Amino acid sequence: MDNDVRSIGPHLRMMMPGLTDKERAIVKYLLEHGSTVNALSIVEVAQDNEVSEALVVKLAKKLGYNGYRELRDKIHRYSQLPVSDMFQELDPADSPEVIIRKLFRTAIQALEETLAILNMTHFEQAVDALLNARQRDFYGLGGSAAIVKDACHKFLRIGLRSSAFDDAHLMMMSASLLGSQDTVLAVSHSGQTSAVLDAARLAKRNHARVIALTNYANSALAADADIVLCSTARGSPLMGENAAARIAQLNIIDALFVCVAQRDYQSAEHNLSKTMSSVEQKREPR
Q1: Are residues 141 and 233 in the same domain?
Q2: What CA–CA distance (Å, rounded) separates 193 from 196?
Q3: Which of 84, 171, 261, 277 is deepest in the core (most CB within 10 A)?
Q4: CA 182 to CA 105: how far, in whole Å?
Q5: 37: buried, middle or exposed (CB in 10 Å: 19+, 13-18, 0-12)?
Q6: What is the CATH number of the domain that holds 144?
Q7: Containing domain of residue 218, as a range?
Q8: What is the pTM of this model?
């Protein structure tokens, strides 16, 4: 497990979908008692959640810890970080000023914690796969569609041909034509979007490299991908998780773009000049 204390909260949140209702309730309970969790005995946790002590120990090991004490200590350390309490629920009575402050703080937390959990080995592999690909196809639906379109726009600016698909049928058509020289970047917050999964799986069967950009490392998309890049974010019932996660994912795309451009900076600079000048005439003079 990553030694960065900032990764503890994101790690626990990413594990949530694979837990039972009782296990999720225990994790939420421990996180809510973050600053005082060190004072909670395993007996108290079990009694307050109406479960056995054995289940608490089993949960700790399921989450990757040696036992309850290590899980408790890690959550306490995480709770002491300034970034851990940046998230605040939106309230119907909030003023516009309070809302914007809460949203900005949630976005900052998403960026800090995504940086903490990002697998740099996988990130460098993604850079290589995008740089060396014959064709780069980006898949995403709903909120993820904006992310793949942004990625396509960026890579085209430096002369790297790519296509963005936000339609289930077009994704499958794209995947059917890919081969071993091609790369897919599939974006899904949940990692469970069936249309994106189907296209990514078809692309992989055709031997294309598949990069997953998702909020959940144990999702179906992550399991099927060759390379996994994880974002993380907390959200409110109104905004959902993917509002803040989208900001983190866009920053990952920006980092991929810059690193790919850096590998052949002279060519990237030349093509950037050409593409910028091609649209210059579309701007009104100042």
Answers
A1: yes
A2: 6
A3: 171
A4: 38
A5: buried
A6: 3.40.50.10490
A7: 117-280
A8: 0.82
